[in-house]
Amino acid sequence: MLRLGRVTLLVRPRTIIVTAVLAVVALAAGAIAMTVGSLPVPLHAVPGAVFGIADDPTTILAVQGVRLPRVLAAIGAGAALGVSGSIFQSLARNALGSPDVIGFTTGAATGALVQIVLFGAQPTQVALGTIAGGVVTAGIVMLLARRGGGIAGRQLILVGIGVGAIAAAVNGLLLVRGTIDASSQANLWLSGSLDARQWSHTLPVLAGVAVVIPVVLVLSRRASLMELGDDIAEQLGVRVERTRLVLVGCAVVLAALATAAVGPIAFVALAAPQLVRRLMRTDAPPVIGAAAMGAALLVIADLVTQLLPVTFAVPVGRMTGVVGGLYLLWLLLPSRGAAEGKGWR
């Protein structure tokens, strides 16, 4: 147990080990990814190129200018999606409560498409539009999902799916409305891609992760108590509505920043919290573990897309979507729902 002023953190050895292993896997996959490309870079030369002390200036330029922003964007977006999914699953008390399932990611994409298609905006404006779209969608879903003064988990998911379907239809209309060039750019962005990531894409999501995740960590104990039910949490001294509002705000900002950085990415926010819960064998919201798992999943998925023996670029969002669909089918099997009731938290 670690005490930091008024904050008390309960640290489990298994949690530390699993998180450390996932972080090492993410960094190792990122290092390997920086060796792949039209200019081969030996693995032993990657650290020197990252810090600008390699012998070959071309290697430094390729790593620092192209491959490092791509890898850091994957790490930041994956971590943001993992934590966002952990928050929503905890609040909804359901394994399907992730931003891509309940429509927040689609709504965030709507805000981005408005900027891309109608205004031809730059990455900074696209990021702001993404956050605005995510916040508006979250407000609508939370308002419609309220029941009896609180928010029911199943109601949140059903309302989110409906609102997400409407947002998806709006996205289709925006693609039809735009010019050929704008629609092509928007369609590529919608596929979820790490190609041509620049520091303007990477830095906002990294800054968001650095600022928001500590806030979520402070509130994680309250979120764990809220999983027992609003009435019990209030009896234990948790200000339920205020805590829920702050947590939803954090989750929406993280999901929106990740979407702005790499486009809509399926599966990561859904699977990362559940996978890390099973590895850590804990019922508490796995904030840091979900961040590490999300980063590892997205970096590995991007590495796999680069190593595929095909002549065209495969967007990482398509790869995670295929894997995520299979994972969702596995999660929805009736035998698993009966055998693992806690899996539907």
In short:
The protein is mainly alpha-helical and 345 residues long.
Please describe the topology of this protein.
Elements: E1 2-4, E2 7-9, H1 13-33, H2 46-50, H3 57-92, H4 104-119, H5 123-145, E3 146-147, E4 150-151, H6 153-177, H7 180-190, H8 199-226, H9 230-235, H10 240-262, H11 268-280, H12 287-307, H13 316-332, H14 334-339
Antiparallel strand pairs: 1-2, 3-4
Helix pairs in contact: 1-3, 1-12, 3-8, 3-10, 3-11, 3-12, 4-5, 4-6, 4-7, 4-10, 5-6, 5-10, 6-7, 8-10, 11-12
Membrane topology: Multi-pass membrane protein
Protein name: Iron complex transport system permease protein
Keywords: Cell membrane, Membrane, Transmembrane, Transmembrane helix, Transport
What is the share of helical residues?
over 70%
Low-confidence stretches: 336-345
The average pLDDT is 83
Largest sheet: 2 strands, antiparallel
What's the number of structural domains?
A: 1
The tally of beta strands, per DSSP, is: 4
CATH topology: ABC transporter involved in vitamin B12 uptake, BtuC
Q: How much is the radius of gyration in Å?
A: 20 Å
CATH class group: Mainly Alpha
- Derived from helix and strand composition plus strand pairing, the structural class reads mainly alpha
CATH superfamily membership, which one?
ABC transporter involved in vitamin B12 uptake, BtuC
Annotation field: number of helices = 14
Order of helices and strands: EEHHHHHEEHHHHHHHHH
In terms of DSSP E residues, the strand content is: under 5%
Architecture, CATH level 2?
Orthogonal Bundle
Pfam family, one: FecCD
Protein name: Iron complex transport system permease protein
GO molecular function, one term: transmembrane transporter activity
InterPro entries: ABC_BtuC-like (IPR037294), ABC_transptr_permease_BtuC (IPR000522)
